[in-house]
Amino acid sequence: MKLARTAILAVASVSFGSAVVLHAQDNSGEPEMSELERRLDVDSVLFNATINEEPDDDLLEQGRLVAMGSSENGGSGMACITCHGVDGQGDGSAAFPRLDGQAGWYLYKQLEDYASGARPNRVMSGIAERLTEGEREAVAAYYAAMPTGDLDNAHGSIDGNQLQWGGQLASVGSAEKGIPACVNCHGAQGTGLPPSVPYLAGQYAGYMELQLELWSEGTRDNDAMDVMSTIAEKMSEEDMRAVAEYYARVTNPETGGEQSDTDYDMPAAE
Amino acid sequence: MPQFSRRAVLMQLGASGLAALTPGAALAQNRYAELDTQPWSYLDGNEARFLASMADVLIPEDDFPSASQAGVVDFIDLQLAGPYGQGAGLYLEGPFGDGTPEQGWQADHTPASLIRTGIARLERDDTRLVDLDADEREEFVTRLSEGKDFDLGDVPAKTLFDEIWALVKEGYFADPIYGGNKGYAGWEMVGFPGAHAYYPDHVDKNAPFPAPPRGIAHVPGTRHSADTASALRGADTPKEEG
Amino acid sequence: MATQLPKTDVVIVGAGWTGLAAAKELADAGQRCVVIERGDWRHDASNFGAPEEHDELKYARRKEHMIDTPTKTLSFRNNADQTALPMRRLGSFLPGKGLGGAGIHWNGQLWRPLPSDLEMRSHYADRYGEDILKGMNVQDWGMTYDELEPHFDFFDRVCGTSGVAGNLNGETQDGGNPFEGPRSSDYPNPPMKASPPLQMFRDTAEQMGYNPFHMPSANVTRAYENAYGAQLHPCTYCGFCERFGCGYFAKADPIVCIYDVVKDHENFELRMNSQVLRVEKSEDGKTATGVTYVDENGREVFQPADTVCLNAYALWNVHLMLVSGLGTPYDPETGEGTVGRNYAYQTIAAASVFFDENVWSNPFMGAGALGMTIDDFNGDNFDHSDLGFVGGGYISANQTNGRPINYHPTPPDTPKWGAEWKQAVRENYLHHVGIVCHGSSVAVPQNYLDLDPTYKDAYGQPLLRMTFDFPENDRKMSAYVLSKAEEIARNMDNVRAVSTVNRAAEGEKYSIVPYQTTHNTGGAVIGSDPKTSVVNRYGQMWDHHNVFVFGACLFPQNLGYNPTGPLMGLAYWTLDHMKNDYLQNPRPLMDA
After folding, report:
1. What pTM does this model have?
2. What is the complex's ipTM, to 2 decimals?
3. In order of start, what are the domains of chain A with their CATH numbers?
C-alpha cells in the first residue's frame, strides 16, 4: 500500500511536469525581490522566514535561484517553480501544495526529512538530497517570505452539511471521536503557527486530504512525536475530506503583517 | 463615542503628568472637571484618573507603554463592571471580622465597591492623586502599599493596594480580549508569544524564540487582537453607588 | 421531603479521578453505579481547546475550573486560639469542580511513595528510636509498598506516565530515581524533553554527587493507548497545564483516560450539577443507606444504594462525614475521635535562579510535569540522626509555564513595583528557572478539621473549619532541604543571582492567601487501628462497613510527593478488595 501510493505520486509529478513548465515560462507571478526584502522588516515575516540565521537579501536571492532550479551540486534536477509555481502557489493535483508564506522552519524541516527519508516521497527525496543544507534553508526562507496570495481553485465541491462538520472539527474537534480541534495547533483560523506548524487556510483540499490519509496509514510520520498520525487515525475518510474542504475555503489573511508606524496605541501621545 | 471619551480622560492624565512637574497643578484639576460624566462602564472620571495615575506609578512608561497607555484602566473598568467586580468567586456572608493577614480578604465589599469606597475615602479632602507631582505620587503609593497611616473605615488600605496592583498586572499582561495589554504591550515586553502555543521542536533548544505574540482573538496578518472588549461595554451599565 | 429514587448498587460522590475509576471498575464488575457530580459536564475536545483555553485571566486568575467559594468554602485559622474566618477567595489551594474534578487542572506530576513512607512510624522508630516522632501523630498506612505496587503500575498505564525507571524489579537503573521502590514494569513512555535550565540542573546535581532524573510525568510523550483502550496524544509543551484543561489529549485526565471508556456502559449513570448534602444512615447507624443531594433543578433527592463511595475532594469528603455524622469527630482536647484528625498539607519552598543572557529558558515552553528532580533529600533517603526532624522533599527544577500575569521573576532586592521592577521583569523573564522543594508535612495534634460554629455554605450547611500552621518539624525540614536546593542553584553555570522563598520559614505563619499546592491531605485517614484511623486498611469505614473512602483524605501524614499517584494506588487497592471480596459478602473487612 505504501509503495503503491508513492509510485502514484511519482507518476503524477512526472505527468504534470511538462504542462507546468510551460506555465513556469511566464514569470509574471514571481515576487519582486525588493518586495520580499522589505517584508522582512515586519516581525511576523522575519520570524516566519528565520530558520537558522536571520534572513537577508543574499539568502533570499540564493533561495530564489534554488527555486528556479540552480544549485551547487548541478541543480536539483527540477526547479521548485516547475511544480509549485513561480508564485509558490502549487496546483490542485493533490501532489503540489502551495508554499507561499508557509512557515519557513517547517518547509526547511520537510526538505531535511525528504532528504533523509523521514518523509517518504520519491520525487521530493531526490530533489532534497541534491540540495545543500544552506540551499534548503535559503529556499525555505524565500518561500516563507512571500505574501500568501488568494486562490480560488483550492477547494473541490462538497455537501454543505459535510462542510459544516469540517468546520466543527477544525474549531472544536469531536469529543465523541476523541479528535482535538485543528486550531489547537494550527493557529487562528488555520493560519499556521510558525515556526513548526504549517498553515491550512487556503491550502489545496486535495493535498490536505491526501496528507491526512498518509498520516493515518503511517506513511507520513515526521511531525514532532507523530501527533498527526494519532489524530488522523481517529478520522474517517469523510472527516478528512470535510476538514480539508473546510480549510481550503478559509481565506488566509496572513499576508505578512501590516506596517505600523508606532508600536503601541499610546493615547497620551496623540 | 465612549471609546474616544475614555481616551480623552487618559490624554488629560498625560497632560497632568507634565503639569505636575511645575507648580500650579490645580490647573490640571480644573481641566478634568468637564470629564467627570464620561460613560465608563463602572468608573467615573475621578476614579479613572486615580487608577490611571496609580497604575502609572506601578508600571511607568519606558521603552514600553505605561499601564494606562496599555489600556489597564479600560481593563479595570470592565472587570469592575463584570462578574469579578461584582463579587463572583468571593464568599460575602457575614459576620465580618478583621482577621489576620493569613486569613486573606475579609472586607465586606465586592472588588468594585472596595475600590470605589477606597478611592472616595482616600480623596475625601479633595486632594487628588493626579494633582501630585511624580515624587509625591510615588510616595503616596508606597505608603498605601504598606497600609500605613490611612484610615479608610472598613476598607483595609493594604487590601485596597493589593487589589489595585493585582488588577493593574492583569490589565497589562492578560489576553487583549479583556481590553488591556493593547497591541500586546505586556507580552512584547517580556517576550511571551501568546495563546497559540506549540513547542515540541524547540523546548530543548537554548536559543531565543522571538515569535510575535498572538492572542486568543488575534487578527491574522496584523499585530493586534480583535477588539472584543468594547462589545462588552453595554450602553447603560448601571452605576453602583459608593 | 426529599424525592426518593429507585435503589442502585453503588452511589459515588464525585466524578474526578477516584470517582470515575471506581465507576469504571465497579460497573465492569456488574455493579450499577450512579455518579453524582456537583459541577458541569465538559470534555477535553469541546471545552479545553486552544487558543480559548489558554486564557490566563479566566482560568488561572478567575479560576473558572475551580470550586466557587460562595457555594462551597471553608473557614480557616492558624491555631485554636484564633477565630476562624471564611476563606472568602481561593488562594493557597484550588479544589476543582465539574466532570474530571481537580484531575482536569492538575500538572501531571505522577509519583509513588517510598516504601518507607508507607510505614513511617515503624520505619523511623526502628532506625532512630520513637523519640524522633515526639509530638507528632505520625503513623503507618496499614499496607506496604509491595501490596500497592500492582495498583501504582496499573495507574501508570492508565496515564501513560513518562519517565526513566530507577528501580526495575530490584535492579537499579541508570538515569532513574535510585531511591524509588521497585517497579514491576518500566514507565510506559520515554521521559519528556529537557529544557536548557533542566539540562543545567541535571549536570550540576550530578557533579555534586546527587542523582537527577526526569520527573515522572502524566504529560504523555508519544501516542499511547492506555490500559482501558483510550488514546492519548503527545504533549506539545504549550505551557498551560496547571489550572487548565488539556485540549491536546496529552495530559492524562479522568475524562480522556476513564470517562470516555465508561460513559456508554450499561451500569454507568452520571448526574451533573448535583450537590450531595449528606450520607444517610440506617436506624442502627451501622451502615449507610444512600445519599441525599440537591439535583440540577434544585430538588432535594434521596438516592438509596447498597454501597456508598466517597470520592469528593479530600476536604469535602471530611466535610461530608462531619455533616452526616459518619465516624467520630476528632477532639483536639482529648485526642479522641478520628474524623478531622491528621490534617496535613505540603511544605513548599523554592530557589529562584536568574541566568545571564546566554541561557534561554523561554518559560512559556513548558509542561506541568516538565522537571528535573533529585530525591536525595526526600523521605528517609538521607540520614536524619542529627537533623532534628523527620521527612523531606524532592528538589526539582520545574518549567511548568511562563504565564505572563503571574510569572514575574525578579532578582533579590528588586522593588515590588515601578520602573525598576518593570525593567527587571523584562530582563529576567526569558532567563529564569525555579527550583522547588516539595516537602512533606507531618500530622500533629493541633492541626485538624472540624465544623465551623458560625459560617454556612450556600446549602445552609456549616463550613468546614481548618486549623493549621506549619509544625516545627516541617519548618526545620524545609529550611534544610531549601539550603540544599540553594547550593545546587549557586553551583549552576551562567547564574547572575539566586533568591529563595520558604513558606514555612521560622516566624512565618501558614497563609491561605498565596497559592502553594492543592495537596490537602488527611482528616479521614487509613490505617489498621480504629483509634487512629477513620477507615481500615482497605479504605472501608470502621463504623459503617458499606462506606468506602477515596482520595488524599486517607493519607495519615503527607508525603514529599504529589498526591495523585499515591491516592490512585490506594483507590485501585480499595476497588480490588471491593470487587474481589466485599461485594460478594458485604461485611467489615477487618475486626475493629
Report:
1. 0.91
2. 0.96
3. 2-145 (1.10.760.10), 160-248 (1.10.760.10)
